[in-house]
Amino acid sequence: MLRLARARLLGSLCRRDSSSIIDSFSQDPPQLHNVFLQDITLKSFFSRYVSEETNSAAHADLAQFGELAAIELPPLARQCEVEKPRLERFDAYGKRVDKLHTSSAWRQMHNISAKEGLIAIAYEDHGQYSRLYQVCKLMLFASTSGLYSCPLAMTDGAVKILQATPSPVSQTALEHLLSRSPEKFWTSGQWMTEKRGGSDVAAGTETTALDMDDGNGEHLLSGYKWFTSASDADMALTLARSFDKEGWPISGKEGLSLYFVNVTENCSMGTIVAQRLKDKLGTRQLPTAELLLDGCVATKLSDTGRGIPSIAPMLTITRIHNAISAVSVMRRIIMLARDYCDRRMAFNSLLRKHGLHIQTLARMEVECRGCTLMVLETARLLSLQEKGAISPEEESLLRILVPLTKLYTGKQAVAVVSEGLEAFGGLGYLEDTGLPVMLRDAQVLPIWEGTTNILSLDVLRAMASKDKAFEAVMSSIMTRASESSTEDDRLSPACSTLSSQCGILSSRVSSLANESYSVAARDLAYSMSRLVIGSLLVDHAAWSKRDADVATALRWCSRVDLCPLYDTEHYSKSEMITNSDIVFDA
Fold it and tell me: Taking a C-beta distance cutoff of 8 angstroms, is the pair 223, 293 a contact?
């Protein structure tokens, strides 16, 4: 009996000790603070072109929204991830309903987007840089939007197309898309991808459009849209194939036209039927569906055969939105990792005291600042274009900057966010921290609206155009390097490197054989992107005079891979054969 009593006593003591061990420590999680005031690069660039004296309301709005994005939006974004959209096919009594359910947080993001004017700002009169103002606000929003940034991207693109295709239908839609009223505000989808998929929409589009001959341009669409993001949108723009006089679908791009679809009305008529929701690696907050169009009523917006050219303005906008999301998520992971440095102890010191850790974060910060400036400069040029204040040289620069910015920032976002998860150790791998979703969602950025290779080929098209885009890029880099070196001699080493690397790049481009251009496209695009960023960094540092900006520019321009375009023999026919031998060596 004594032995049993002693065992029970010891067991009780052990349990108390175990409980005290469990409750003895919990790690403070990282916190976001005002994401506008904390983003020095974003704030200073905006101040450079839109001073507080000339537009105090815009600065106050961004500061207020920066607080909202840090405090109120993250819980809503998390709810969007946890309460994923679902498709209800049948009700309890067997009736087919095909009802799409989204979370209350997703619907709140809709209301916030409208009230904050996240689309409207770019089309309102906020001076010369209305678009830049909008892009800055979207950068604060994107990474804490629960992926509501995606329908906003397509909505913004739809506005550009509808403005270019005036009609009663376009005017009515624009009143909704540009509204700040949550009840009136619409979002738009874009339905371009069909079962054949890919970027070759001319070959992949099988949906047909039967003219109703009603004098209003209405057609009946029949087809299968394989990948429709933001499937809960109120309207959509889509491509469909016309019939010839004999009743056969017109093949190739000559048969494609652009159509407006009122999604709400068609769903109520049963002419749009959701087949299933996509099971994706990331962006799970976003409803993405396969849709059957079964006599879907649509209004023709473009002339027959002008479908693909008609969507070009939309691609410019959506690619910029893609880059906005890329820099936004980079900034968010860095802000969280930086805050965590003052909360996490390792080897008896805070993380901020460990030189290797801070060096890693500094490298992430340099990459993020460079990408941020690239996006903001593209937005600045777009602002000038939309206000009719852009020069021919700037127009050429904008044409090539859009694909460069999209491809480079999308790729770097994945690398930076992956590195950022490591800053949290094992916690970075746990779903309930809300960190892994950032990496899963970032992986879409190099894919959506053109993969890295597709965008690299678009860069080649820009170079081959009469606009002389390559010359415009090289000229802008050289000018910024020269002026920055004169403005602040601390930047002379970086400016000298930029000038010499521009010379090397120009020489290598001129020596490429015609058949080598496509193989060299990716390395060429990376070279141009890094040199453009280098020039923006020295230019910004010369203006701000801040030590950290100067150090960032010097570090960027000292990297060994500033110009990764090799000599011409690396892209020769023999090298292409060797590439094939290596890949298919089985």
Answer: yes
Q: What share of the chain is helix, strand, coil (3-state, %, to 5)?
A: 60, 10, 25
Contacts of 454 (CB under 8 A, 6+ apart): 199
Q: In degrees rounded to 5, what are phi and psi of residue 235? A: -145, 170
Tell me the chain's radius of gyration from C-alpha atoms: 26
- The bridge status of strand 349-350 relative to strand 288-300 is unpaired
Q: Which amino acid is at 271?
A: T
Angle at the Cα of 206 from the Cα atoms of 204 and 210, rounded to 5 degrees: 150
Nearest to 448 by CA among 243, 215, 286: 286
Question: What would the two tokens of residue 497 be?
Answer: 């490197």
Q: Which residues contact 546 (CB under 8 A, 6 or more apart)?
A: 40, 44
Strand partners, 99: 88
Tokens of 428: 């970075």
CA end-to-end span of the chain, whole Å?
Answer: 74
Taking 80 as the threshold, does the pLDDT of residue 32 lie above it? Answer: yes
Whether 18 shows a pLDDT value over 70: the answer reads no
Residue written as token pair 């597709």 = 454
At 166, which amino acid appears? P
Q: Give pLDDT tens digits for 269-303.
A: 999 999 999 999 999 999 999 999 999 999 999 99
Do 272 and 224 form a contact (C-beta atoms < 8 A)? Answer: no
- State residue 245 phi and psi, 5-degree precision: -65, -25
Give phi and psi for 92, each to the nearest 5: -65, -20
Tell me what pLDDT residue 515 has.
85
Q: Is 344 exposed, middle or buried (0-12, 13-18, 19+ CB in 10 A)?
A: buried
Q: Can you tell me the distance from the alpha carbon of 73 to that of 67, in angstroms, rounded to the nearest whole number?
A: 9
| ∠ CA 380-386-387, rounded to 5° | 90
Helix pair 149-164, 168-177: axis angle to 10 deg: 150
Cβ-contact 275, 291 below 8 angstroms: yes
Vertex 221, ends 217 and 224: CA angle to 5°? Answer: 155
E strand residue ranges, 270-412:
272-277, 288-300, 345-346, 349-350
* Torsion sign, CA atoms 378, 383, 387, 390: negative
- Say how many C-beta atoms besides its own lie within 10 A of residue 167's C-beta: 15
As a whole number of angstroms, the distance between CA 397 and CA 378 comes to 9
- Residues 170 and 260: beta-carbon distance below 8 Å: yes
Phi, psi of 189 (to 5 degrees): -100, 170
CB 285 within 8 A of CB 146: yes
Residues 175, 103: contact at Cβ < 8 Å? no
pLDDT digits (tens, 9 = 90+) for 378-411: 999 999 999 999 999 999 999 999 999 999 999 9
In angstroms, the CA 537 to CA 548 distance is 11
What is the C-alpha to C-alpha distance for residues 46 and 58, in angstroms, rounded to an integer?
10
Structure tokens at 101: 């359910």
Question: Rounded CA gap, 155 and 246, in Å?
Answer: 37
> Which two three-digit tokens encode residue 549?
């900006």
Question: Closest Cα partner for 494 from 465, 533, 441, 461?
Answer: 533
From residue 571, alpha-carbon distances to 141, 322, 515, 531, 585 in Å are: 42, 30, 9, 21, 20
Q: Which residues contact 580 (CB under 8 A, 6 or more apart)?
A: none
